[in-house]
Amino acid sequence: MTATTGAPTAPAAPRRRRRAPAGVLVRRAGLYAAGAAVFLFSVFPVYWMVATAFKPVGEIFSKDTRLFPGTLTLEHFDRVINGQLIPGVRFWEFLANSLMVTLGSVAAGAVLSLLAAVAVARFRFRMRGAFIILLMVIQMVPAEALIISIFINFRRFQDATGMQMLGNLSGILVVYTAVSLPITIMMLRGFVAAVPKELEEAAAIDGAGPWTVFWRILMPLVAPGLVAASIFAFITAWNEFIVALTFLGRSTEEYTLPLSLSYYFGRFGTEWGSIMAASTLLTLPVMAFFLFVQRRMVSGLTMGAVKG
Amino acid sequence: MAQTAEAVREQTPPEPPPAGPGGPGPGRRRRSVPTPYLLIAPALVILALVLVWPVVQMVWNSLHSYTIRNLLPNAPAPEWNDFAHYRRLLSDREFWTILRNTVVVCVLMVGVTMVLGTLVGILLHRLSRWFSVTVSVGMMLAWATPAISASLVFRWLFLPERGLVNVALDRLPDWLVGSGWLNYNWFLEPVSLFGVLITVIVWQSFPFIAVSVLAGLKSIPHELYEAARVDGAGGWRSFWNVTFPMLRPLFALLLVLQIIWDLRVFTQLYILANSFQNKSVYLLSYYIYQQGFSASPANYGMGSAIAVVMTVMILAVTAYYLRIMIRQGETR
Predict the structure, then answer these.
(1) Which helix (H) or strand (E) segment is B262 a member of?
(2) Which uninterrupted H or E stretch holds A90?
(3) Closest partner residue to B6 among A35, A49, A304, by Cβ?
(4) Closest chain A residue to B274 measured between Cα atoms?
C-alpha cells in the first residue's frame, strides 16, 4: 500500500527528495493507520449492532464470542416485526406513530419556519433583531430543563379545555414542531436571503402577484434549503425521547419507536438479538437521510463561522 | 451555501426598508407594515407558548411548594415557600455531588470530543481524497445513530459476562489488564458508568467537530502554511500560529454548542443506568426528571429548582455564544 503510493510521487515531485524518503513513507503509513483506526472506531459499534441482530440466539448466548456471525438468521427481525415489542401492540403501530408525529411536525415546522424565514430575510422591522436573538437563546435552552413546566402546561390545558394532549400524539407533535423551529428558521433564512431580490422584482414588474412570486420564484430556489431543514427536523423528531417518555406515560399503544425500544429493553433486557434488530430498524431511516443531508447540516449549525 | 447567503445578506442593509420608521407614504405603509409581523406571528406564538412561557413558569414553580397533588381536581394552588427548594439544595450534599459530576463529566466529554474531533479533522485534510471520503462516511454512521440505539449498543458491548469488551479484556493476558474482567459490571459505579457514557457521547459527537474543522481547514489559504514552513515551523507550531487563529471563531462556536449539548445528556444515561435507584450516577438532567416524574410524590417544585440551576449554567454559555454571533453579524 505505502510502497505503491510512495513510488510514483518521488519522480513527479522532485521537491520531496529533500526529505528522507523513508521518513515520508513512515509518516504516510502512520496517517493511513490513524485514518483506519478512526474508521474502525466509528463503524464498529454500528457493525456490532447489525451483526448481533443477524446472529442466532445460540451464538449470542454462547461464551465463545465471535466477531463475525457463523450463521445468519432473520429470526430477530421476524420477532420484532411480526411479534410484539409490547404485549398487545404491533411493531407497525409504533412505526405508524413515529411516522405520524415526525411527518406531522416536519410539515407544520416547514410552513411556520418558511414564513418566519421570509420575514427575517426579506423585511426590516422593529422586532427583527429581538426575534433573531430569541431564536438563538431558545435554541439553547434544553427541553430537559423545561420538561416539568411543559408537562404541567399541557396537563393544565388538557384539564381546562378537555382536549387530550397527554397520552396521545397531539401533545408531542406540538412540542416537536416548536423545538426544531429555531434551527430551521435560521437555516432557511440563509437560503431565502440568497435568492436575488431583483428576480422577484422582475417578476412583479411582469405583473406577477405576491403569491405567484412566492410559488414560482422563491419556492423553487428555496426548495433545497427546505428539504435540508425538513430532514433536520425529521431526525430531531424521530430520535426524540424525553418528551415522548413524559407525555405518553403508560399509553403504550401511542408509543413512538424509541420509546417502545426503551420499554422493551426495560422488560426483556436479555433479548439482545431482538433489541439490536429493533435498534437497527430505528437507525436505518436516519442514516439514509443523514448521508443525504450531511454537508448542509454542518453549514446550518456553524452558520457563518466558516468563511472563505 | 452559508457563504453565499452571507454575501447577499451583507449587501442588503444599505437599501432603506420600505417600512422604515421615516417612510411617509401612508397608503403604502398601511399595506406593507404588518406583513413581516404576520409572517413571524405563527412561529412566534407557538415558540412563546411551548418554550418561552415554560421558562417563566419554571422559575415560578421552583419558588412554590408544588407536587403532583396540586394537579388534582380542586387541589389548592401551590404555596410560596420562601426559597425552601434552593435552601435545601444548598445544604444537600447529594445535589453538590451531582452538580460536580455533571461539570466534570461535561468537561471530559467536551474536552475529549474537541481534541479528538480536531485531530481527526486535520487527519482527514491530509489523507488522499478517496480515503478521506471513506473515513467520513464511516463517521457519518456514528453521527447518525439515534441516541437510543447507540446507548443500547454500548450497553450490550459492555455487558457483564457476554459483552464484547468484557470478553476481549478477559482474553487479554492478565499481566497487561488484570483479571476478573468477564464479570465486571460497568454500570454500578459512577466512575466506570460515566466512562462508558463519555465513550458513547464522544463516539456520537466527534464526527460533527471533525467535519466542521475539515470545512474550516479547507478555507485557510495554503500560502499561510507555506510561509510558516519557510519560517521553520513544524506541525505543532503551524497549528497554533496559523490554524488556530484562523479558525478561532469556529472553535469558539463548536465549543459552545458542544458544552450545551453535553450538559443536557439524558437519553444515554437513562439507558445505561437503567433505573433511578443509584443516585451516585445521576447527572443534573437525570435528577430533574427523577424529581418530576419518578419520585413519589412527584416534586415539581424541587425539579424546577434544579432545572433553574441547569438553565443558568446554560444561559451563561449561551451569552458567550450570542456574543460570537453578534460579532459575526448573524443577528443583523
Answers:
(1) helix B248-263
(2) none
(3) A304
(4) A266
